[in-house]
Design a protein that fits this description.
Blueprint (H helix, E strand, L loop, with lengths): L1 H21 L4 H23 L5 H18 L1 H16 L6 H13 L2 H13 L3 H20 L2 H6 L1 H13 L1 H4 L5 H21 L17 H18 L5
Length: 239
């Protein structure tokens, strides 16, 4: 659990720096910083998505996953959770929810979170999560300077739970997480990162949280494919 814990602590540290050392810059500078963040995150997301090798799988995962997320209203649940936390912690910041939701999704998607947590749990190798911590810490500084520092800091909790859960379950996941599955899951996650970047640039926000189930559907589809193929071959359905 060392890797996930360090990652969470660095996010909180970065959020504190962004909130108290950088927050308060003039509005026109804050606006241009938001646009720069949006374009940068959009680029990172698109770059990661281009690693996808099965376009139709990505499309179906996004469509079905988004429908599942919309039915569950994950975005609403995360906003209610952030509102409750904001009330309990005594904050009053209109950007609190945006900071928490956007930062949580950004930090929990992508191959570094998945593979890094697995390496941490399976091998005791925390190098990838340490490297991710540096990147997340920098993003926390930037996010906290334009959104809510407290909301960004709170995102350390789902990061710890997500990466920690994968690390603890790594023994089971090792049997089903192939390189192909990780690549396709990461591609879908990168597309969600691109959507976060887009949210910095447009006025009408995309409910990216409701698309989170899409990340796990390549795992389901490819696992089912690997199970069904031998059966179909035995039945003579596949040549």
């Amino acid at each position: 659990m060392l890797g996930p814990v360090v990652n969470a602590v660095v996010i909180v540290f970065g959020a504190v720096i962004g909130r108290f050392l950088i927050k308060g810059i003039p509005d026109r500078f804050e606006e241009i910083v938001r646009k720069a963040i949006g374009l940068s995150v959009l680029y990172i997301g698109i770059k990661g998505t281009l690693e996808n090798r099965q376009v139709m799988l990505l499309i179906f995962s996004m469509l079905i996953g988004s429908l599942i997320g919309e039915a569950l209203d994950i975005d609403g649940a995360m906003k209610r959770l952030s509102a409750l936390a904001e009330k309990r912690m005594g904050f009053s910041d209109p950007q609190f929810s945006a900071g928490f939701v956007n930062a949580s999704i950004l930090y929990c998607t992508g191959s570094m979170a998945i593979v890094g947590a697995m390496n941490s749990g399976l091998l005791g190798n925390h190098e990838m999560l340490f490297a991710k911590s540096i990147l997340d810490g920098v993003m926390a500084v930037v996010f906290a300077s334009t959104l809510s520092g407290a909301g960004v800091a709170l995102s350390a909790v789902p990061v710890l739970l997500y990466e920690g859960g994968i690390a603890l379950a790594a023994g089971v996941l090792k049997q089903v997480m192939t390189d192909q599955i990780i690549m396709e899951m990461s591609a879908v996650g990168s597309l969600l990162i691109a959507a976060i970047g887009l949210n910095f640039l447009i006025s009408r926000q995309i409910k990216v949280a409701n698309m989170i189930p899409a990340i796990f559907l390549p795992w389901l589809f490819l696992s089912m494919q690997s199970w069904l193929r031998p059966l179909l071959l035995n039945l003579g359905i596949l040549g």
